[in-house]
Specification:
Low-confidence stretches: none
Radius of gyration: 24 Å
Number of helices: 8
Number of strands: 16
Largest sheet: 6 strands, mixed
Structural class: alpha/beta
Order of helices and strands: HEHEEEEHHHEEHEHHEEEEEEEE
Shape: globular
Helix content: 25-40%
Amino acid sequence: MQLNQTARALLKEYASNQAQFFETEDPSKQFAITGPKETALKNKLLEKAGGFLKLITVEDVDQKSGQVIQVGTSRLHTGRKKGGRHVTASGVDGHEYALVETDSCAVVTWDMLSVWANSGKPGDFMNRMNENAMDNFAADLLRVGFNGKVAADTTNPETNPNGEDVNIGWQALVQRDAENQIINLDVYLDPDGGGDYKTLDAMASDLINTKIHPSLRNDPNLVVLVGADLISFEQARLYDAAITPTEKKAAQQLPHSIAGRKAVVPPYFPSMRMVVTTMANLHLYTQKNTRHRKSEHVEDRKQHENSYLRWEGYAVGDYEGYAAYDETKVHLGPTPTPVA
């Protein structure tokens, strides 16, 4: 594995560009990102991960811990009080968030650097370097948000490939603080009627009618987040039931709605999980003035490393607006016959 001379020259140019853009003498040494540069970094990340980050609540906060920011609610705001004025309660007393130090590192090996240096148009190398870092940073924000369970002092990506030990994600927060919003019983999805549910519509309807607060059930922003394996199972069911070529083609398409709500298959979402909530109910917070970057060519490891350090965490705006199945309890097929 060798780094060709073209790549070496482009890496020097890339470092010079980084220094100029971030107004730092040496980007290989950790530097702070504040002010307009901090806003630009945040906005760049929001464009990534299929645009999903633009749909959720992403906020900068002043403190490492504090009260969850409620950006709006579909609960009733209107009424009257005899002899006075009606006031709507916030409903989030004691609902707090906590951030942890979070460190990301996007790596490009010498082999890949050499390939990038010898292909594409002028300027492509610089774009690929920047886009690679942002793509990886943004992907991990969602990966941890959907799969995170704990915030370990030292993480292990080998045993926790989806960031299960990086931070406490949305489902884990609800499980910890409002466990009644998660169905933890074994449930069986069987189109032949031998299980608890025949369709995904029935599964989602049960979540909405039993777990979502009555004032939120008809919120037009409610969506059904559903895992890829559940969608595939539903597609197979529809395809088997289809008769005409048109019906079979329609059955192969991703269902646009489940239980009358928009169906979404988010990136890095557990394949057997189903959640009913609004996108804005999923929160991601970063502490202001804690963002730091470093862009370093590490000869000893034969790679270039783009690092992003900050204090970050997740929150759910309204627990009663989040309902889900524990994916480890969702099964495909009929309910097993009890052993005598």
